[in-house]
Amino acid sequence: MTDTRDICTSPSTPRRRFLIGSALTGAAPLIARSEPVAAAEPADTSDLRKPTSVDIHVNGRPFHLELDTRLTLLDALREEIGLTGAKKGCDHGQCGACTVLIDGRRELSCLTLAVSAQGRDVVTIEGLDGGGGDLHPMKQAFIDHDAFQCGYCTPGQILSAVSCVREGHAGSPEEIREYMSGNICRCAAYPNIVAAISQASEQMGE
Amino acid sequence: MADTRFPQATGTMGQPYRRYEALEKVNGSATYASDVKLAKTAHAYLLTSRIGRGVIRSLDLVEARAIPGVIEILTHQTVGESIRQTQALYTGGYVADSVRPLGSAEIAYWGQPIAMVLAESYEIAREAARKIGVSYDVSEPASSFDSAGVDMTALEPMNLGVGDFKAAYANAAVKIDARYSTPVQHHNAMELFATQCVWDGNRLTVYEPGQYLNNIKYGLAEQLGIDPELIRVVNPYVGGAFGAKGFLTQRTALVAIAARRIGRPVKLVATREQGFFLSAYRAETRHHVQLAADSTGRLIASSHEGWEVTSRADVLALGGNAITLRLYGCPNIEGRVNVAKTDRSTPGFMRGPGEVPYAFAFECALDELAYALKMDPVELRRVNDTKVEPIAGLPYTSRSLMQCFDAAGAAFGWAGKTAAPGSMRDGDWLLGWGCAAAFYPTQAGNSAARVRLSSDGRVHVSSAGHELGQGMYTMMAQVASEQLGVPIEHVTVSLGDTDLPPTIVAGGSAGTASLAPAIMSACDAIRRRLQTGGSPAADVMTAMRASGLGNIEEFAETRAHGLPPESVQGMYRGRVAMSGGVHLPDRVQLAFGAQFVEVRIHARTRELRVSRAVGAFAAGRIINPRTAHGQLVGGMIWGISSALHEQTEIDERNASYINANLADYLLPVNADIADVQAIMVPEEDNLVNAAGVKGVGEVGTVGMAAAIANAVYHATGKRLRDLPLRIEHVLEEV
User: Fold this and answer.
1) B588, β-bridge pairs
2) Would you call the peptide bond into B724 cis, given omega within 30 degrees of 0 as the criterion?
3) To the nearest whole angstrom, how far is the Cα of A43 from the nearest Cα of chain B?
4) Mean pLDDT across the stretch B437-451?
5) Which of the four CATH numbers 2.60.40.3710, 3.10.410.10, 3.10.20.30, 3.30.365.10 does domain A49-126 have?
6) In a domain, B453, yes or no
């Protein structure tokens, strides 16, 4: 049995307009406290492709970047800045491998447009130690408890774990499990991750 | 609490050292394939088929090409014959499926690549891919077992048996006749399917995560029609694999051709959704198990027939009944395997490939038999324990099945079980206890390795082997350290580069069992050069200093038991030659284990949880109990996931997958996993290979789903025979 069907993958015009509207809504709070975002005016797609100036602090260093407005913070870190510790596991906010700290909070860098990080402080796994030469207690705890296997989710797990402790959600193994459930580990090192966070939680003194 | 996880060992091989690459992994500096930064990289985005079967009628590239920053678009019209036909890995070739990448307008399965856009950025490539207009002539695909047009074939060469099953079964007093099924599952390693290719003149370097880098090298050379020695594949770290990265997928040749055509490096990171179609998967299976026993529980007759799904292009059948039917003594046995050819991509190997689904069926049926006999399921297995496999009467090299049952049963507290279903309860929670056997064939392939000893006491080990998270760097450092008597801190290891000595695929739990003997052999050669003879390894450095030599470097290759001499050449062509398990003429090699679980089912909501799991495993020599423990616990959690979470849902209209993403494909998160214990039962087996290693990558997963289903029966009296087990299945008729 054979029939004929046309499938066109181009987005329709109304759909495109909706996407622009959503992007602006999302960017609104940032515009209020930082430099105006270049794509603020309704525009055709050629303007959306025009590079936009973004200033981001990453691991304490300022970066001035000219970026495609569609670029995620994850890809900006990896492709533009050259920090590849944050990993792409799904690009949809479903796995946690891209977790970074933004203004001290754990955030999914794949769901954060780079332009919306304008003026914000980003900490990646490469910047967690703080420059004193000592390994962060969470990193040491992950080594001590063998809290990883392939290592791909590990930077995201560690940053999420640091936040979990700072948020006050590392009070018990059950609480750690609950608050670490945004970070998937397919190797399933979960019991060791919980043990590592319990150890680091005491050492971090927060 | 005494740390029972780590068995005692005297030598370096056996100590729970921390991972060799631990610092790189916690610092985010371990370089995975997509982390490699190449100058002037062009970014690729795949467009994949949105039909399950048919022909591309037309491709409209005008709008896509008009986007600034688009460099090139590859389609079947521009690739066509330039990628040569190669055989699937299962039939002696290299590729995951034998459909040629962009080879023609024919669509064999949903998700098949139909175009690859190259652009200055990922965003532009993605936008352009979405602006390609595609029209198809669509045919109705056969999606699974029950589809119209499916081609079901009995694979008679896989028949096995002994005695007269039918007669024995007909006359038996106690019988079980049951059917089971397992769903489609996907590996979903955290790392996406990434590939980077860069040409330097006629030389190509490929950065791609792989369980078998030489498979990529030689397969790609065949596809491109070039000398394999012009190709180098580099990948020091794999971000999880589980079977999905053991062969060449459609993407690699496309990226290589693209990089050559545009004269720039090309980077492809396939999306998570594309990954569900790009590589292999665990196909759905069906089972019919018939068991008969006498009144003491001794098996009189056992039959296990399996049905598996494969693609139209390639026939893959895993036939796990070749092991389930050899687990226990039984005089009358029959086994058959059937495959259904569908319009899907070719399935493949996923952690415990044939063992996981076949063990689910067989170990559940055995539990059903125990209840029918009013016998404890552990005792049923003890009554049927055997020293020789039942079909050809071959000896096991070692068999610690009952030691595993006893160790895990004691740690679990199995003696406290009350047998009747529904008889154990904790407040609002119905408790269920269940157990099952675990097993996995001990296999190995040919391997080579190079070891260099320097006069300052430093040792360097090199191999094209693979670090998937199993701890290969650490274990290989331990092997060299013990064999040469140098401190482990003095050993460095290079892996993941086809310029290094070849080894076998890191799969089938055979990686360590294959590579460790080659390193031991190279260390032997160094000792022979130094004429230390049979003296202890500690004398090596004394002899080295006395020799006045700056360095000694030795290359060794080892051939696995059961492989012919000519198979060594295959190792230098990226072939998969592995022997062992139940396929040797003289003996049977299996690792064994026992899984015990407690499930809790809420009396009102029917929420279903695995609250405790204890596994005990005997797998020969454990080189690093720390990394082995991670493998075993991870494997057990995979088993929990397989029983309760994972199922790729098929859309029968177009043979696609509905839940091809990490939100809808259910994987356990930290909150899903409670108490999981893995015990390593000491076992010495000097026959399997020179290292005495059986491998632990897969045995931890096998049997877990059966133990859970058996526990659910104990909790509820309801026998669930189809995975995954979900709340709605427990809701009915409890």
Assistant:
1) B396
2) yes
3) 16
4) 98
5) 3.10.20.30
6) yes
Are B250 and B88 in contact by the 8 Å Cβ rule? The answer is no
Q: How far is B6 from chain A (nearest CA, A)?
A: 13
- Interface contact A199, partner B, CB < 8 A: no
Number of domains in chain B: 3
- For residue B282, give the DSSP letter: B
pLDDT at B235: 98
Q: What residue numbers bound the domain in which B623 lies?
A: 393-442+584-731
CA distance B188 to B235: 19
- Residues of chain A numbered 71-130 and touching chain B (CB < 8 Å): 71, 75, 78-79, 82-92, 94-95, 97, 124-126
Distance from CA of B651 to the nearest CA of A (A): 18
Q: Which residue of B has its CA nearest to A69?
A: B123
Q: Kindly provide the ipTM of the predicted complex, given to two decimals.
A: 0.97
Nearest to A71 among B123, B191, B272 (CB): B123
The pair of three-digit structure tokens given for residue A34, joined into one six-digit string: 């930082």
Report the candidate in B363, B399, B322 with the shortest Cα–Cα distance to residue B701. B363
Query: Domain boundary at B516, B546, B576, which?
Result: B576
Could you tell me the CA-to-CA distances from B432 to B377, B571, B596, B602, B707 in Å, in that order? 14, 48, 11, 11, 10
Q: Which residues of B touch A109 (CB under 8 A)?
A: none
Which of B132, B134, B661 lies closest to A94 in CB terms? B661
Distance (Å, whole) CA B439 – CA B356: 9
Residue B209 lies in a domain: yes
Write the pLDDT tens digit of every residue in B210-257: 999 999 999 999 999 999 999 999 999 999 999 999 999 999 999 999
Torsion region of B54: left, alpha or beta (phi above 0 gives left; psi -120 to 50 gives alpha)? left
Among B557, B576, B595, identify where a domain stops.
B576
Q: CB-based contact (8 Å) between A145 and chain B?
A: no
